[in-house]
Specification:
five-stranded antiparallel beta sheet; globular; Hydrogenase_HupF/HypC; about 90 residues; Hydgase_assmbl_chp_CS; HypC/HybG/HupF family hydrogenase formation chaperone; alpha+beta
């Protein structure tokens, strides 16, 4: 499953001509393209899908969504180690 996940900008920089951010998704840190939201600043939140920040989001909504995703195990599903997930699925099938 592919989710649009809220994240908080921790760094912004241009890399090879592309505006990029380092974003925190409830403890998981990923690089994200900011070309669709070039004025997004450190400390702000945005919805991210497949590595692109798509829409600005207020902090309260972002935190509620991240808490719900964590509770449902969706953050691990979206950002977890695929090898670990495959190993767990294989062990569950035995």
């Amino acid at each position: 499953m592919c989710l649009a996940v809220p994240g908080r900008v921790t760094e912004v920089a241009e890399r090879d001509g592309t505006l990029m951010a380092v974003m925190d998704f409830g403890g998981v840190v990923k690089d994200v393209c900011l070309e669709y939201l070039p004025d997004l600043a450190v400390g702000e939140y945005a919805i991210v899908h497949v590595g692109f920040a798509l829409q600005r989001l207020d902090e309260e909504s972002a935190r509620r969504t991240l808490d719900l995703f964590a509770e449902l195990g969706l953050l691990q599903e979206e950002f977890g180690d695929p090898w670990e997930a495959a190993r767990a699925a294989e062990e569950a099938g035995r």
